[in-house]
Task: structure prediction
Amino acid sequence: MRYDDRLATVLRLPTPGRNMARVQLTQLLDLLGAAPSEARGDLLDAAYLRVSALCTEFPDAEIAAMLGQPGLRLRSPRLVASLSHAAPAVARAALHAARLEEASWLDLIPALPPACWSMLWQRRDLTPGPRELLARLGGGRIALANAGGEAVASDDLGGEPPLAAPSGTAPMAPSPAPPVNLAEAPSLSVGGEPLAVATAPVDGASPAEAPAPLTDTEPKVATPPTAQLPADEGIGAIVRRIEAFRRTREAAQREGAAPLPYSQDAPRLPLGEEPGAPVAMAFDIETDCDGCVIRADAAIGPMVVGLWLGDIGEDNASEGGAGTTSALAELIAHQQPIRAVATHLTGAPAISGAWQLDAIPQFDILGGRFVGYLGRLRRRAPVNAAALAPPSQPGESPASDGQPTDSHADRLRQALHELRTPVNAIQGFAEIIQQQLFGPTPHEYRALAAVIAADAARMLAGFEELERLARIDSGAMELTAGTSDLADCVCGTLARLERHTSAHNIALELDGIARPLTLALAPIETERLCWRLLATLVAVAGHGESLSLRLTRKAGLARMSVSLPAALVALIDGEGEAALFRAAVHPAQEGPSAGMFGTGFALRLARAEARVAGGGLTVERERDGATLCLYLPGLTQIDTGHSVEPRGKFP
Result:
């Protein structure tokens, strides 16, 4: 979830034949075309080298057809620049399929070969900015022959296309254009704005810098043009703006309002006044992998760059910061998200005071390496809060101090929702590839897709368990009511575990069973609870170990007691009974599993389910070990006279 390894997967797969090479080239073009423009790394360089090698194995027309596929994403300026230096057919297809932002086009166009300017000029979906740049570079007047010998030119400027070269001869170079008189040049417009026609270069100057030719009636000495201001931009308008600025500032000072938040582009009048100290209300920061601020807003940067986030934690600042480790430093060490952490900054008046920090960790797109935090600092108490806060109404509750109102369980459920959506999508696409719903797929891809689908299913099951525990602990969920028999559910669970117990010589015997043990729970809830407990204990049990199980009824409670495996008994002896519910013991890979988070989480979830059902889960010590006891409230039943069956195998 933290990084994208699709590029490494494509490069790792072999290409034994031409079809596999074509598939790999298509996938590399799609992945590189969708890569962010700031992405860098050895993996990306290896992918570009592989694309260059694969392009030599296919004709230009076939590569151009790949670039023209509707589903291909070509949003990377680096890939477009690389393809523009290829054959004319490939360059034309790449420039036609590219979907770049206006800023990317403005950076890319000057680096393109001149022949590509005319190809790009023929696109009608470009924004006015790139088209104006192409016009200044003369993109509409360049005509170069393509691979077939046919001259390519744009006639948007009213010029005639150059003649095609005769068959078997080299293409004719366009003759230099005669000097253009600006007075006689046709007027053009781009996006509704008039556009001057680019003239031929003079003495090596670029078209944008070429001076206009002089006529006989013009003086030989160039004079600067006279700037005529509109009617509303005269000296009187400037004076009126100055007076309005002064009146607004004086009115704010008389009313006792707080100074306006500092803005970098807020000008001050050059009247010899001393500027007041700006007060920042919020600013953004970026840190390196150690949590040290390396970038911040331009106005605040000199005050905070070089600051380590671990030193501004409020618990650290209250203790003097000498040799202490704050909770914020712990989050940074474990690369965890920082949410609503109270901090305190000291220094210049613009930043000193109490702040709240929110930051998210950033990871390298290709390799998954932690690179730092992106965060924002907000003031917890506004400057001059008494003047800024509106008057409170009668009966109105005081405003909160800015701390989040969501509980821990609510935040956990929100995080699980954010994680479940991409995992569902990954599982769906993996199943599509594995089942070949979109067409034949290589067996290597199908095997990888099957593994991905299985991993996604396990992750979704783990998310469901986390959400179930959070909802039970917060009181937002109750177990489904119904009628079930605990004895029947236990016997069914033992039958499902018999294959594993027989293979590992684990003896799980019933010392006694009371029937019936009717519960006020739906059968699915009782079966989940029995499986979670018994599968967890059996998976931890060692080879040849013996576990005893007993079902009894007393005082309206159904009781199931199971002896703990030796590994868990040793854990209790060393760390206490509470350590059992914190254990990180994971079952063997081939054994049954009650969840993906280990033994302790499974037992905590079982204990929470028992509590919400009106019972409990406890540990009882014995002379030769320990027993895990489950208590659940039972329903009143008619006594049949056969409540306890003799020791032996379960029916």
User: Anything to note?
Assistant: The first strand starts at residue 144 and ends at 145.
